[in-house]
Every structure is written in structure tokens, then in C-alpha cells.
Amino acid sequence: MIDLEAITFAYPHASPLFENFSLTIGRGETWAILGPSGCGKTTLLYLLAGLYQPASGQISIEGEILTRPRPRSGLILQDYGLLPWSTARENVELGLRVRKFYGEDGKHTPINFQPENNVPYWLKRLGIDEVADKFPAQISGGQRQRTAIARTLALEPDLLLMDEPFSALDAITREDLQNLTLSLCSEQKLTLIIVTHAIDEAVGLGYKILLLNDPPNQTARIFENSGVGQTGYRSSHAYYELCDLLWREMRYETA
Amino acid sequence: MKRRDAFLATVALLFMWQIAAMVVNLPILPAPLKVVSVFVRELQNGLLNHFIFSLWRVFAGMALSVLVAAPVGLAIGGSKELSRLFSPLIYLLYPIPKVVFVPVVILFLGIGDTAKITIMFLILFFQIVVLVRDQAAGLPPQLIQSLHSLGAGRRALFRFVYLPASLPAILTALRQSIGTAVAVLYITELSATKYGLGYYIYYNGSTLLDYPAMYTGVVAMSLLGLGMYFSVDWLEQRWCKWKFVT
After folding, report:
1. Under CATH, which number does the domain A2-30+49-191+208-223 receive?
2. Which positions in chain B have a beta carbon within 8 angstroms of at least one beta carbon in chain A?
3. CB–CB of A47/A8 below 8 Å?
4. How far is CA A115 from CA A73, A103, A122, A154, B150, in A?
5. pLDDT at position A156
6. Which pLDDT score, from 0 to 100, does residue B245 have?
7. Domain-by-domain residue ranges, chain B?
8. Chain A contacts of B164, Cβ < 8 Å?
9. Please, is B172 exposed, middle or buried when counting C-beta atoms within 10 Å of its C-beta (0-12, 13-18, 19+)?
10. Looking at the domain covering B43-244, what would its CATH class be?
11. What is the pTM of this model?
């Protein structure tokens, strides 16, 4: 579904984060991008979102070369993604309102986009229908993140990009939302790419784990994690073994 | 502001005024009760007319300033290139005391209301531009990026982010401008008019030496400013509900 072909990317006046970097991500897979701060994981996500452009090489999604944000990709950030002056419901409606604002132009809005009012459904599915008329400042961090997810899913995406979406939440809320995300992805047949600095989160969510290290990243180091999503996986031997392996890999690289 | 607090403040102010009038004991500082009785008399005697002239000028001056300055502030705050181009210009022009241009503006625009409104505009414009620009420039980049990823381009960002985000700043700018606007109003009404509270105060105080009437004009001007403060508060409570939730 996603092909990165020999991309190179650097911020102005800085050494490159990615050099001739290639990666292929299949449809419906869940991927975790793991690495220490400064390794370029958020940058990679923004490249996949079409917010940044590689200096050379190209990124294509569903066969189309990415040059700008793609209407069917949904991006969820750690914080600040919600409009503080709009209620949870208005925030969930936001993507649909932006699309209506432009109309079907194929650039901001997909052609043949049928805006059906699925906002009540997503408010209910994410369990935030009771706080729908409150402002972001009035609801909990978990509810805010649920609102952000509902807003993205209301646009019927096929690809979900998440940047450390749960790192500001407490452990219980975090695990609830991780499980919810996994079941939503399999329910909606979504491809998921989640950026995290937490090893347990990567192993708890990623069917495949991409480990980035000190830049420049040249080859993709991928760890298979096929047990993900199975009940009890988080207390299994395989889970701990992979966590331990990733921990040692990260330690070794930064030492 | 609570209604009860406003009432108590008024009572306290009148009380201090009364004490001061008793201590000074000169015609130039009449007691509040005297001024109130003259106020009621003058209201039927043309004061209302002066009030309406002043209200129109200050309202027109502020409305024009907001309508021009808010979009300019938004555009500069939302774009680094525009900011680099125009911010130095604004910093150069902002500190110039625009009141000194009163004779120049009158020379160019005549003695009518256009000149008076223009002077107010010149002063308020910069205050509002700076406040709105800072608000727009200070938006978290994550917010902008999320909107981009929802498909928003420049126009939608303006409509769904910059405009609502700047509304509180516009109202704050308005509130801060009221004091200045009323002061400038007084100055512009000193000359070249026979209507308006500024004229009324000056004429009664300096020509007729009718001090109770002069204070009547001062009270009317305060009420004008107070009414504008309340109006801005009212707008803020209607348009910026999210700022008042707990």
C-alpha cells in the first residue's frame, strides 16, 4: 500500500535524517515506529502524511505519488489537535465541514465523497456521546484523544497515522485506547502507523515494528511481532522477549 | 464583571466625589447630586443629541479599525513572509503619536466626521493589528498540522482556525482601545464641530464657565465608554463561550 523509494530528507541546515531509505508497508498492517528522540520517527510520519516532502526519492500510497496531504489519510497527534473553541461534537464534525467548505474538488475532498452524517455513530462508538457538548478543556485527556480519533474516522480513512497519541495518558487509559485502536483498525480494515518512544506500546500495537536509531537512517530494521492483538499477549513470554530485545537494540545503538 | 460589583463601585466613586467636593468647596468641583440634577435637565436640552453624535463617531472609528486591522493582523500573523515584510513597518509607525496629525488630517479631509473618524482609525489600527497578529502567530503548530491533514488549505485554515482563534484577541484589542478611542474622540471634537460631547464639555467648561453642565458632559462621556465596555463583554460571552467554561 505504501512505498518509500530511496527517500532522503533533511531539515534546513542540518544533517539528513533519512538517506536512501526504503520501506514497504502492506494494506491492513499495523506498524509501530520506535526509536529515541531525535531519530526522525515523527518526521517519517509527517512525510507519510504528506506534510513534508523528501529531498529525493518518492513516497507513493495506493500507487499515487504523495505531494500533499492525502484525503484518505488520517493524522492524530499527541495534543493540541482539537480546536479549543469548539465542542467535542463540533471537533468531530470538523473534517466533514472542511470538506463541505471546498466541495468535491479531488484535492481537498475525494471525488464522489458522500458526506453522510456519521458523527453521532462515531461519538457513540468512541464512548464520548455524553461529553459531546463540552469543550476540550472540560474533558479528560483520554476523552480528548477519543474525540481526535472520532474526527479522523468520520472521514472514512484507509490509513491512520498516529504520533505518540497516548503518551500523555495514564497507564489504564492508555491500554484501553490501544485496544480500542486495534479493534477499530481491524473493524474498518485500516492500515495503522503509530509513532512511539515506548517499547511496550510498540510491542503491544505493532504487527511490525520499525526501529530507527541515530540518523542518518539508511536501512529499515524491522521486527516481526505476529502475536499482537491476541488475548493475553501482553503477559506472554514472546511479548517480554521482544521488549527485551528491542531494549537491548536501543541501548546498544545509543551507547 | 458582576452587576452588584459595578453598582458598589459606582456608589464608592460618588461618595469620594462628594467628599472631594466638600473639601474643595469651589464652583469648579460641584457635588455629584447637583451634577445629576443638571444631567437630567440637560438631557432634554440637547445633551442626548451631543451623545448620539459622539456615539456615532466613536462607533464608526472603532468599527472601521476592526474591519481593516483584524484581517491585516490575521494575514501577517498567519504568514512568516508577510510578517517579515510588514512587521518592521508596523514597529516604525506604531510609536508615532498619531494625535499630532490632527491638523494634517483636517487639512486633507476637511472638518467633517470623516476627519474625526480617520484620526481614531489611525490610532486604533496599530493596536489591533499588533494584538491580532501576535495571537495568530502564537497558535500551536500541531493545530495547524492537524487541520492540514484533515484536508484544510489556506482558505479553510483561515476560516476554521485563524479567525475563531483571533476573535478573543480582537475583542481584547477593542476593550483596550475604548479608553484611547474616547480620549481621541474628545480631542477631535474640540475643534471644527458644534455637536458631540467633546464640544459640549469644552464649550460649557471654557466658554460658558457652567461647571455643573461641564461635568454633565464628563458623566455622559463616561457612560459612553462604560456602555462600550459592557457591549464588548456581552459579545465575548456570546462568541467565546469556551473561555468561560470551568
Report:
1. 3.40.50.300
2. 140, 142-143, 145-153, 155-156, 159-161, 164-165, 167, 240-242, 245-246
3. no
4. 16, 10, 14, 9, 14
5. 87
6. 79
7. 43-244
8. 83, 85-86
9. middle
10. mainly alpha
11. 0.80
